[in-house]
Amino acid sequence: MSPISVKRVLISECVDPCCKALLQESGIEVTEKQQMSREELIAEIQNYDGLVVRSATKVTADVINAGSNLKIIGRAGTGVDNVDVEAATKRGIIVMNTPSGNTLSAAELTCALIMSLSRNIPQAVMSMKDGKWDRKKFMGAELFGKVLGIVGLGRIGKEVATRMQSFGMKTIGYDPITPPEVSASWGVEQMTLDQLWPQCDYITVHTPLMPSTTGLLNDASFAKCKKGVKVVNCARGGIIDEAALFRALESGQCGGAGLDVFVEEPPKHQALINHPNVICCPHLGASTREAQARCGKDIAVQIVEMVTGKALVGAVNAQVLASTFSPDSQQWIRLGESMGRVVRACTASKQPYSQVHVTSIGESLRKCTGFLSSAAVVGLLTEASQTGPNLVNALPLAAETGITVKSSHEESCEHEAMVLQVSVNGCSFRAVGSVQGSNPVLLEFNRSVFRQPVPLTGHLLFFRATGSTEILLSVTGALAAAGVELQFFSTSGASSGEHWHCMGMSSLLSDIGVLKPLAKEAAQLTL
Ligand SMILES: NC(=O)C1=CN([C@@H]2O[C@H](COP(=O)(O)OP(=O)(O)OC[C@H]3O[C@@H](n4cnc5c(N)ncnc54)[C@H](O)[C@@H]3O)[C@@H](O)[C@H]2O)C=CC1
Ligand SMILES: O=C(O)C(=O)COP(=O)(O)O
User: Fold this and answer.
1) Does domain 103-280 match CATH 3.40.50.720?
2) Which atom from ligand 2 is nearest to the alpha carbon of 13?
3) Catalytic residue among 54, 91, 275, 283
4) What is its EC number (predicted)?
5) DSSP of 289-357
6) Per-residue model confidence (pLDDT) at position 491
7) Is 108 considered catalytic here?
């Protein structure tokens, strides 16, 4: 992927100062503006190539669509549920986060809430500040020997588990992705949620907020829990349904809740906050000097590495791009885009496309199939789309346009190549290309193999005609008459008595119609 130009970045929240300093050191202009209203952000965002946020800035589709220059949204933290990632992807904007920077802080706050719940620490503090000395009221229970259910066994879930094991808690959990043998290696036995709920004295959730985790703890799941179960949510508001939690607290089914996050922040459900068995923080999981320093530094370094073309780390919507940051991949990306553009030029009168199939051939291209497909789609859609296709949005744009994109890989010890097959209006087009030296070349078009590989650069004329010398002389004559110089020429072996020819030209013909009497099909383009 060619380096992405980011000259101006807006930081819309309180992010560690090292972020601004690191970006500025790399020549990026940084503006910090906090607590902007939605309208202010929408008005401002068009002036920036990059936006850095934490969890409070709602980067909605409106904001994204107003960001006409936006190329990167950096989340100095983990959860990206405040960013409309789908809208960003459609616009070809990379969204990245710094998921490990605040793991320990979020895990430590979770443990602090579990401990506070077990001994009523916040309530006891409040009571003393009220001038009381009430030792009976705040009788607690040991954590030793109790069962902690951890839903979501990723980075934070794991750190919570190992810390609470040191208090003698038994840790059980559930995660649809983390393999049971992996979590078992750090002491968490996995089971289904239905098996987990009735065993737990404490439950803590550590999943992202998404449709499948919204309301994970609800009336039905609370009903399956032990009476008096205590719950902690240091992940996202809504994973524990707030209304169901309130009902469970009122009935005593839930014995206490430690909440750091809320469906709306600041929370609207004041009765929940005021409940005597609820202890809470204003989303402080990542609010430590260490976590902020890490996240601020990580997001700045990731943006600078992306801008300088060194690496792409932390992208949540463009994983395929991570493998494009090497000099070798640049040439293959150029090949994919160029082949897409050649096919587009030669099929201009026949669109729309219905299917695109890209096959990578050869061991060294095994990991490139994903971005080769995207690159080919970028070439095919380049002039068709207003939104400027790039490697981030190529596949969503293709889907939106009704194009099915397939990709496959074939092993070969002999050569490396890319095959692009495009179905358009019942016809099928097939191009084969490769990289020679560092130059993308076209080897074959519609089963006609070029005798000399066609360098995919400059002004190119493709035409289909018989291979007779007279036709070639006539085409050369037509170019000369139009004041266009012939720079190279390659013809192919015959396929059904006809050949595809390619000529490199000093400029494009002002009227390609002059070739109509000479060729069956003709197309020109500049690469
Ligand atoms: N309170 C705070 O300030 C902070 C909150 N967070 C929140 O914590 C969440 C977790 O962070 P990490 O552990 O770093 O993320 P992670 O991605 O390492 O772990 C999340 C785990 O949840 C699992 N998961 C997904 N769907 C699930 C389901 N239906 N049931 C059970 N597990 C499921 C995933 O497989 C994954 O292993 C973040 O998404 C973020 O929203 C993160 C940092 C600070
Ligand atoms: O990283 C996360 O997911 C968090 O929830 C932390 O949010 P914050 O950066 O403190 O607004």
Assistant:
1) yes
2) 11
3) 283
4) 1.1.1.95
5) HHHHHHHHHHHHHHHHHHHTTS---SBSS-GGGGGG-SHHHHHHHHHHHHHHHHHHHHTTTTPPEEEEE
6) 86
7) no
